[in-house]
Sequence to fold (652 residues):
Amino acid sequence: MTYQVDEKGYYGEFGGAFIPEMLYPNVEELRTHYLEIMNEPSFQQEFHDLLRDFVGRPTPLFAAKRLSEKYQTQIFLKREDLCHTGAHKVNNTIGQILVAKRLGKNKIVAETGAGQHGVATATVCALMGLECIVYMGAIDIERQAPNVARMRMLGAKVVAAQSGSKTLKDATNEAMRHWINNPVDTHYIIGSVVGPHPYPDMVARFQSVISEEIKTQLMEKEGRNYPDYVLACVGGGSNAAGAFYHFLDEPRTQLIAAEAAGQGVGTGHSAATTFLGKSGVLHGSRSLLMQTEDGQVIEPYSISAGLDYPGIGPMHAHLFKTGRAHFYDITDEEALDSALELSQLEGIIPALESAHALAVLPKLQAKPQEIVVINLSGRGDKDLATYQQRLKL
Amino acid sequence: MNRISTVFEKASGPILNVYATAGFPKLGDTMLVLEALQEGGVDIIEIGMPYSDPVADGETIQQSNQISLDQGMTVALLFEQLKDLRKKVQVPVLLMGYINPVLQFGVERFCQKCQEVGVDGLILPDLPMAEYEAEYREVFEKYGLYNIFLITPQTKDKRIHQIDAVSKGFIYMVSSASTTGAKSGISSEQALYFDRINQMNLKNPRLIGFGISDRESFLKASSSASGAIIGSAFVKLLAKSSDLKKDIIAFVREIKGTN
Fold:
């Protein structure tokens, strides 16, 4: 069993490149060059220098003692929340903008939901002096005003997606349309392990620095280079892909994905794709997708704007289908409780997305000697308004 | 023989292909629109199957898709509306849409239904050539359906020849790098692209679409292809018309120059 993408762009039955002919030249150019570019020594040098000096990597692997005591196991937090811009998203945008430059592109388009990927894209565009357009659902623009302001301060143009449900899925549609209309000079920086091949594989490779560091850091701290569990939240699934990547073929490590159940899987207000989705095609790849019987995409719901996506990356659909990863559905309430718990036990306010991964802890029943690594994908500043309201602060 | 091939063989002038979103402007208007298009003298009809996320389409067609879906349109209902298609309409009919609703309906069941009601071909922009050849071609051909492929100004010559080899009926030539309805009219740069393709000696005829909205752009496009496709401009007409039959017939006659 392989968990890597095959030469046709598939993970088992999931993946592929279901794109209109208008996007074919761009996606094909990327497909034929991405590995070659990423393997160039000069690329590797520039990528790792920026991850170190600009992003602040390696991020710490923190032994969470009070949390460990509470759950009677050994818990480590991978501190992606300490990345510049406040989340793991920047690992991917740094990588992709270096690819874009080598492909001779001078403009960048991106989609964003909560605004984290938009900020990470605007940040690297400012760093590299490239023009940046970010599509964001009109409703998300209202919900996430601080991130909109950050993007604008960084020089990006933020465009409201007015179509459909006016959230992340529609922002992605609009970014793809923008790319169709500007095929020659523009690169599309997708923010997750979704989209047509080679995007899921390329984004997973850029994010794989997370599990690469976990291996080294665990070796230093614990004398073994694998944990018993890796926990990560999954919307599209980029932080999970990065946290799982180097453990995919490590049978001693259990991969645990936390999906946003919203108000509950059966309530009609949920984003738990593996529980509610069926195989289908959206945004260029075949994967699990929340949809009606007629094949129309259903708008998901989660308290966390970053997990509010009707699909899931094809790699994760494959991990689910093969049983390699175990998926938990976490409700809004459970995530909020866990966010409060981490804040008060460890002095770290997590992003709402990451709080979904933390909320697996009460259900996990890990043994005292076992090592549990939780990918703390982002910090909670952007969610303060929600925390204030829901936790009555 | 497939009706699409017959149209190209017998055509005496430029071929006009008109796109209409199914179930639009009102859910029950599908057949009325088709019959009026035929009465006006259209050569090929493209029926849009509405989809929640039509990435290759611009605002006009997106909105018509959403309105149609909100009114209750589904793939199953569309086939129901088309059950007497061939008692009333003789021109070739294509279904245009996105692959996901087809997958959920079941590819073979979908093709079978197409054959049953008398659909001649499909345009599925997010079904690329490689996937088509690997998974779909056999079943499409089993039910006599032509799959229409798109080419754009960015499509390389080698790929155009590959698409030509796989295509039947005609090739859908996208006039510029854009979604539908983005621009209007034909620039001199586009005319050069049309001529370049015209000189490639492809085995399939071409129809030019995207940006064709009136008689002038129709004739200009048709001078370097077998004809042209009008979509967004027609959907706009449907959206504002208060007398569908009369307006549709007048629209087609105006474009064809037969009024």
About this structure: The interface with chain A takes residues 51-56, 58-59, 62, 66, 69, 74-76, 98-105, 125-128, 130-131, 149-152, 154-156, 159, 174, 177-179, 182 of chain B (CB under 8 Å). Chain B has one domain: 3-256. The CA atoms of residues 102 and 155 of chain B lie 26 Å apart. Chain B has a mean pLDDT of 96.
